[in-house]
Amino acid sequence: MSRQSSARRAGRHARGGAPAGLLTEGVAASRSVAWKVRRRAAQDPRRAVVALSLCLAAGLGGGIAVTMSMEPDASAAVVAGAVEDSLGAEAAAAVRNAYEATRSGERTSPPATAASPDTAEAGVAASGTGAGVGAAAEGLPEPPAPEPPEPLAVASAGVPSVEKSAPPSPSPSLRAAAGPTPEPGSGLLGTRVAVEEELSGRLVVATGSRRAPAEGKVWRVQLAVEKGLPVDPEVFAESVLATLNDPRGWNAADGSTFAWTDSDDYDARVVLASPGTTDRLCLPLDTIGELSCGIEETAVLNFKRWATGSQAWESTERYRQYLVNHEVGHVIGYHHDLCAGEGEHATVMVQQTTTTSGCIPEPWPVPDAPVPDKD
């Protein structure tokens, strides 16, 4: 590049960007240094090497530092031209190559510091995007989000609202750590159970599903416990279904078999409720806070009876089996029987809560049906 072309380019860029004074000052400084280099080189070759280094430093530092921030391309051209005029084509080529490498980013980046697991997790959580999300999608499990609680239905007049129970604990140890262990066969929690006359009326549906175990007429049964009762809903559901599907139960009598569902698409429903809620659910029948009922598709079991049994029965466990079979018997179409006589076995549809009228209490529709041995 000639001096004349360098001067024209400097002037053209000065009009469009950086002040011409800054550009010409860089050129003048470079020329002055170059002249000194030639003079000292003739006197002492060793000084020429040192002087050449100073020339490059002054030319590059002065020209680029002064004008690079305003007109990078013009600055590089001016400095390269000055170096070519003073030191030759090879020195100018070195200036141009250094500039092009700097502009294109050809520098060695320092190695990235490995992020700790805590730092990486925090970054993913804060941004919600990036490599962390990709890694999770390719096999790193994301922590489960607590499922939002199901909204409670607003109770209409005389009709309890319904909600789903939480899934059962995965192990007895976790269940024990959370509270009292439910009694098998009833779901009662604690050794001393207080019977409150009336609670909120909200029903908690036991979470679970199961197919009917036998052939015959299938009844899909939903099971629910009034919120606030000291009862585990799932253990209560298990005990009710064990009674309904017992070999001595309704399947032996008429072929009915019972499946468990927690959906609202059910054929029958069994509800355990406080005495006051039982009275409301059983209307227009009068259960006087003491009795249970089977009305339309719902068998309502009075918690007072479930917890304390009946004086007419020696075994509370057998009384609960009678209560389930009797009230569900109404739901599937059976009416009350009368005691056949003193000392006779009552049928399951004989009223046996307050008195058996001289009959021997009986909880099963078919008490003589064979029962497989439990190993």
UniProtKB/TrEMBL annotation:
It comes from the Bacteria. Residues 208-357 form the DUF3152 domain. Residues 1-21, 100-188 are annotated as: Disordered. Residues 141-151 have a biased composition (Pro residues). The keyword Cytoplasm does not apply. The keyword Transmembrane applies. Residues 108-140 have a biased composition (Low complexity). InterPro entries: DUF3152. Keywords: Membrane, Transmembrane, Transmembrane helix. Pfam families: DUF3152. This is DUF3152 domain-containing protein. The lineage of its organism: Bacteria, Bacillati, Actinomycetota, Actinomycetes, Micrococcales.
